[in-house]
Amino acid sequence: MIKNIIVTLILAAVSSPAQVAAREVQPIQLKCEHLVNPLGVDAQSPRLTWMLKDDRNGARQSAYQIIVGTDSIQVLNGKGTLWNSGKQGSDEMLVAYNGKSLKPVTRYFWKVTVWDKDGNPSSSKVAAFETGMMGINHWKGTWISDHNNINHKSAPYFRKEFEVKKDVRYARAYIAVAGLYECSINGDRVGDHQLDPMYTRFDRRTLYVTHDVTSQLKKGANAIGMVLGNGWYNHQSLAVWDFHNAPWRARPAFCLDLRIVYKDGTEETIVSERDWKTASGPITFNSIYTGEHYDARLEQPGWDKPGFDDAKWGGVRYRSVPSNQVVAQLMVPIRLVTPYKPKLLKKIDWKTYVFDMGQNMSGVTRISIKGPEGTILKIKHGERIHESGRVDMSNIDVYYRGDKEADPFQTDILILSGKKEDEFMPKFNYKGFRYIEVTSSEPIEMTEANVTAYFTHSDVKPLGEVNTSVPLVNSLWKVTNNAYLSNLMGYPTDCPQREKNGWTGDGHLAIETALYNFDGITVYEKWLADHRDEQQPNGVLPDIIPTGGWGYGTANGLDWTSTIAIIPWQVYMFYGDSRLLENCYENIQRYVDYVDRISPDGLTTFGRGDWVPVKTTSNLELTSSVYFYTDASILAAAAQLFGRVEDHRRYTALSQKIKDAINKKFLNRTTGIYAGGSQTELSVPLYWKVVPENMIQKVAANLNKKVEETNFHLDVGVLGAKALLNALKENGYEQSAYKVAVQDTYPSWGWWVVNGATTLLENWDLKAKRDISDNHMMFGEIGGWFFKSVGGILPDPRQPGFKNILLRPIFPEGMDHAKVTHESPYGTIVSGWTKLNKKVTYEVQIPANASATFYPPANARDKGLVKLPAGKHTLQVTLL
User: Does 134 have pLDDT greater than 70?
Assistant: First the structure.
């Protein structure tokens, strides 16, 4: 054991364990399907989770009981008409509902009682979840649209008036859309979501959204309005990705059920039907890819309020259901999360203004301005500035093939009404930008007050924080998170401007960074459902998901589309929740079996390779085969988890076969070099555990020597950037890893930051001629690595979800103190330390019902590990 360990216990001043339980112990953070009080749950066995509030040392849950019913008072009093689990002697805090069959569109209440380490019970507050349609046959509305075709530019507006004659108890709007929508009732917008519903393979899965609209209804006359956008469903802008040829493409359509439950117990459903009316409005064009055009002269005030004269509006038409799966969008929504005002305004002339928002972001611009009727404003968005001060689009408009005059890239067009101060913000588009250039057809006066930008992304809850004595580390963490959020729009993307594609490689390379920092499980469960929708019968996946058909090429192989295995496994590691892994099991199996069929000797060249390297290319067959091994190993582990004995035997043997084939062909056992010995070729086999046990130290020493040769600079592409720091840190070279991580000269992550980057870039070389997006996530491992190194916080594969936390911190030279936190499914983990000369004071917080194992770093004097129960602890570590 480490000598001189001081364990500090924080105990409340109480007189008995029973009083502690009554006053301080309580189940908190109740969630259903990883959401708080969700609406629209389609699952028959939804997952119920909670945390234990108990600050005592050694706090744990010894038993639990779940009560579920339809009457909140009964549930509060411990009576569950749907499910009473009984007292279960278990420390589980993630339990699947196992009661009577759930009914559609029904509100359920639940609570959990837990027994603490002393056997004292404590109950939670009552939580709720509400089921959704639970099947396409429960919808009452019909799918409707206007009478225009896919080439019509103006967005369709729809309206319907109805009477509410009794007092409303509650009301829900269930809205399914092929395309995008914004709904309003009595002139007020429904909800605060943006860009609903999320992008899917529309002809295989269509999402619907549930809104509580109780407060928006009133007794008497009411009106509901809908505006539809094209989104990815009707992609009119041309680009190399072939979106415009998607097999599902059609004019946007919707289906709506507005279910009203009255206080007298009766119900009424207002539905989408032929009695709705439709017309065009001020949105004259919209494209998710390029921009939105808005003519304020065409506004029809009051169109979504009762009493509006819609005599000139036309009738609607029926449309077929886009897919056979109309399912709930049960995930964190996209929102306007953070507003930004301009940091700098440059007036080029009386018709041209450029705003610097100070932050590269994904988002939209709101502009409020008054000018002469018919004045045309072009609102251009970009990441770079010409020497002239104008916006430079050359790094991001390279794949656009449309009409740049009629449909300019990343540019909104606003025509002023001349009657008032016009306000415009696109409803059905977002962009990637730092700079906004407004050009006007007539002279106008603009100030910083006219423009607000909104950082827009999936509104995932922050879970992690890195705060150290080294400003560059803190900046790299923030910059990485800015890039990640900029590329989270209901699915992870590569960049928010040039492509907006769900590149699979970018997704899995950044998955640990994602899960350390944000509560993203619902986004990834949605995206892996997209994977299942897109998978070919033979197991092949495209390398952008979703896709309109592009991406089933010759290079869509293992180093990219291993998302199907890696992401479900990492979600299991971080959440202890195996449902996504189970849902994807057959898909992983089909994928691995396909690669096995085309790679009978265990080696494969199916992949893209180490994309965008600094200078040295790496062997494609080596890296692709390592990912083949990784997928087979995950499949074998999943088979064991789910009790699939024969599959476990089969895929364990396959993974060993692949590993042996890799080492036979690429490992020089005399020198300890893989292939040509590049940083990537050495780090990838180390990180993914392909190196034979007796060769690990020799290979790691060679990797360290390779890094020393570059003076601790990177010479990797995306695969090496994922593996390098981990391979060094895990094999005794943590100081070298840290030196690479905090390097601030070319090529390095820090080089971007010292040159003013506020997000991660696509290319190490600031002067590169291609692959030069300034907001990319494929090099995003750096943000997550600080949790694994400086904080040393790692999930234990044997007790996933941070049930047991592996603490493997490093105390690098040049850093005096650090505090790294992560909110796990059990609560907040704190790993913080201060260093004075050779003495480190290490302070740890382990949440209730969890434990930890501390592993001293390589430069610690004492090497013994320490087991830590829940609570706060202080350890003293002496360094060599």
Answer: yes
Spatial CA neighbour of 258 closest among 137, 174, 162, 132: 174
Number of H helices, E strands in the chain: 18, 45
Tokens standing for residue 642: 């789910």
CA distance 480 to 476: 6
255 and 144 in contact (C-beta within 8 Å)? yes
CB 32 within 8 A of CB 38: yes
CATH class of 138-331: mainly beta
Q: Scan for tokens 């790294």, then name that residue.
A: 820
What pLDDT does 863 receive?
87
285-318 b/e (C-beta count within 10 Å ≥ 16 → b): bbbbbbbbbbbbeeebeebbbbebebeebeebee
User: Cis omega (within 30 of 0) on the bond before 197?
Assistant: yes
CA neighbor of 97 nearest in space, from 61, 67, 126, 64? 67
Query: For residue 531, which phi and psi values (nearest 5 degrees)?
Result: -60, -45
Q: Is the Cα dihedral 616, 619, 624, 627 positive or negative?
A: negative
Q: Which residues in the chain are classed under CATH 2.60.120.260? A: 138-331, 338-458
Q: Tens of pLDDT along 690-730? A: 999 999 999 999 999 999 999 999 999 999 999 999 999 99
- 374-385 average pLDDT score: 98
Q: How far is it, in rounded angstroms, from Cα 531 to Cα 525?
A: 10
Element (H, E) at 73: helix 72-76
- Cβ(346)–Cβ(436) under 8 Å? no
Q: Which fold has domain 17-131?
A: Immunoglobulin-like (2.60.40)
Query: Does residue 15 register a pLDDT over 70?
Result: no
Q: 125, exposed or middle or buried, with CB in 10 Å at 0-12, 13-18, 19+?
A: exposed
Q: What average pLDDT does this structure show over 208-220? A: 98
CATH code of 338-458, in short, is 2.60.120.260
Q: How many other CB atoms are there within 10 angstroms of residue 494's CB atom?
A: 22
Residues 6+ apart with CB under 8 A from 23: 12, 14
- pTM here is 0.96
Single-letter amino acid code for the residue at 648: H
pLDDT for residue 23: 54
Structure tokens at 580: 């996504």
Does the structure show a pLDDT above 90 at 10?
Answer: no
Average pLDDT over residues 512-531: 98
CA–CA dist 668, 647 (Å, integer): 32
Residues in the chain: 880
625 conformational bin, left if phi > 0, alpha if psi -120 to 50, beta if neither: alpha
pLDDT confidence band for 204 (50 / 70 / 90)? very high
Handedness of CA 777, 783, 785, 788 (dihedral sign): negative
pLDDT digits (tens, 9 = 90+) for 347-377: 999 999 999 999 999 999 999 999 999 999 9
Asked if the model's pLDDT at residue 379 lies above 60, the reply is yes
Give 572-614 pLDDT, tens digit per residue: 999 999 999 999 999 999 999 999 999 999 999 999 999 999 9
Is the predicted pLDDT of residue 219 greater than 80, yes or no?
A: yes
812: helix, strand or coil: coil
Measured between alpha carbons, how far is 606 from 608 in angstroms, rounded to an integer? 7
Asked whether the beta carbons of 289 and 230 are under 8 A apart, the reply is no
Long-range contacts, 755-761 (Cβ 8 Å, 24+): 757/360, 757/479, 758/358, 758/359, 758/360, 758/434, 758/479, 758/482, 759/360, 759/361, 759/479, 759/482, 759/483, 759/486, 760/479, 760/480, 760/483
Q: Are the C-beta atoms of 469 and 479 separated by less than 8 Å?
A: no
Using CA atoms in the order 440, 444, 450, 455, what is the torsion angle rounded to 10 degrees?
20
Which tens digits make up the pLDDT trace of 808-818? 999 999 999 99
